[in-house]
């Protein structure tokens, strides 16, 4: 029976992977590649761990009969088949990615790089001051430079997520401004991969990388480390079309370092400032437990248990998808605002854990079931169709030239795809709308600047005589 479970589980990520490999518009596989990766970690890897290696299955999302897993595997396989169907329905003839030269031309120069770097550092400092003024875990900014305070902040995040009482402010509105740092990091990374790379690009990338890692440490955002590697690889494929041997070697060195940081943050969550005496073996066990015993990624165990327990609850009938409407009202102004994520409902109503600030991860296939039952598989058609059309729109030559829309693909479409396979729709789309504003704020000026440079180069190539005759609409006064 376990072999049958594993065989079906392996088919789930294979469906979007094959679709991406054969039909993706974007270089490197497009958003379906991220979908496949999240499914691989959440379905076959979780099934293998649950039935072959797990020694402790006391978490509530393991409390269901084996038959529930069978239904969950069939459901999610159907969902992904329909995602691929929707993706195919969104295809048009003669669609081809030709925007790489245009994207390279829109790479920002040293001055714009410096502006983004200064804005990012200033925004980071402002957010820290705002949090400090609200006594968010530290009384002095210098505390954040100590091992004990970083460990305590990671531990306090676990307490905040798991606590039964004190449901209240998460300061998500303040933390949203840190998206500027992520956006600047991605833009400058892409520019550094172009033909116009300068030392200022490299220096800015290193400084912003340090800020992103520091933010991840003090906020306990362990999956940000995976995001950095994923989006760097994707940016290489989009801007350059390949990854050099030198870059692969660098990634091979970076991955164990990132996993070491992830392990340290996992230990911090358990032991706080007392983490110093933990051995390597125990630390590794904690890290693997946090991946495979958690609801990270598109977790099949969570889906199976929800499907089994939803027999005693009414379907939400689309209610969780409409929470996007109230998501932009800060809790500063509406203290009792209902939770945006449906994960709170899962934690309190399905699992009966009680009120808490954090919820259970509820990716799109699971959320679709919570709303429509088995009919939720048809959400996959809409999702696949939307992925394809957004992918093509953002990377078409026309839109890249006009709006700098490639930044929307890198900073909106890909992150939303990744988040939606791990978290709720409203939460993912809230971040997407904010990111869209930031992406267009730099994408449109970058596109306009690139067009002006191209016009000037064209005018210089034509020469004074042709310009005087009004070539390309450029005229000079008559002699």
UniProtKB/TrEMBL annotation:
Region (Disordered): 460-479
Keywords: Membrane, Transmembrane, Transmembrane helix
Transmembrane segments: 6-25, 32-52, 72-91, 112-131, 170-190, 202-218, 224-240, 247-268, 368-386, 406-421, 427-447
Protein name: O-antigen polysaccharide polymerase Wzy
Organism encoding this protein: Thermohalobaculum xanthum
